[in-house]
Amino acid sequence: MNWKKYLREDEICDLKSGENVKTRTLQIEYLSEGYANKISKEVLDVGGSVDIDNFLLKNGFNVTALSLRKGMKGTNMIKSDMHEMPFEDEKFKTVFCFHTIEHSISPYILLCEINRVMKKDGYLMLIFPEEGDFWTFSGQHYFCLTVRQIWALLLKTGFDILKTSRFKFNYGTAEVKKDLGLLCIKKRDWKHDLDNDINLIPFNAEFFEYEKLASIQDIFYMEHKDKVKNSFMS
């Protein structure tokens, strides 16, 4: 099957909606809080935001960015398909994937590829619009996932989930956007035996009533800017 014909590369444009540097760096701070001494600043950025990657480079990060976007410029930028990355196995210690998985034609394949190019015990940070906000129907958003869906995919592709946060954005008086942010660690190869690892997936009442889980932290991002300590960005 020639699945690449479905990529619609000619329609990929340099969107700015997910690239607010102030917002994104604050989200990184929250997700990395408590892990500052564990997460490497040698980063693969899947999706390659030019503005954010340039900001990270100026702040001591060594960033390799991967994207199909038109007009890509910047240091260490590679134009390539995220479903078939041009890297050897276990190359990166840290992977960022910000506002990218919703553009994937196969989130499962994308997460398998991320797992493949990551070192064991490496950290993955994901941020994307949660299913149900107004970006669900964006023309280039093929998969807007729920909490349960992304948890299941991550566990099936070899990751353990360390932290889940919901970032809420208010425009005027209405809350119209919700981002999910997750910090994960690679614990298994993507080819691990799913049947033997079925006990990793928490099939219980709390899993199906995830709104009640204390592990999901709701954050109104502008209200807590000064409360983050010991973060990745410190």
Quote the CATH topology. Answer: Rossmann fold
The count of strands amounts to 8
Outline type? globular
CATH superfamily: Vaccinia Virus protein VP39
Distance between the termini: 46 Å
Domain count: the total is: 1
Give the strand order, joined by hyphens, for the main sheet.
3-2-1-4-5-7-6-8
Order of helices and strands: HEHEEEHEHEEHE
Average pLDDT, rounded to a whole number, is 76
Which second-level CATH architecture applies?
3-Layer(aba) Sandwich
Poorly predicted parts: 203-216, 219-226
| Radius of gyration (Å) | 17 Å
In terms of quaternary structure, the protein is single chain
Main sheet makeup: 8 strands, mixed
CATH class: Alpha Beta
Task: Spell out the blueprint of helices and strands.
Blueprint lengths: L20 H12 L9 E5 L3 H9 L3 E6 L9 E3 L12 E7 L8 H11 E12 L17 H10 L2 E13 L2 E13 L18 H4 L7 E5 L14
Parallel strand pairs: 1-2, 1-4, 2-3, 4-5, 6-8
Antiparallel strand pairs: 5-7, 6-7
Characterization of this structure:
This protein has one domain: Vaccinia Virus protein VP39 (Rossmann fold, 3-Layer(aba) Sandwich), CATH 3.40.50. Helix content is 20%, strand content 27%. The protein has helices at 21-32, 50-58, 107-117, 147-156, 205-208, and strands at residues 42-46, 62-67, 77-79, 92-98, 118-129, 159-171, 174-186, 216-220. Strand 1, helix 2 (50-58) and strand 2 form a beta-alpha-beta unit. The model is unreliable at 203-216 and 219-226 (pLDDT under 50).
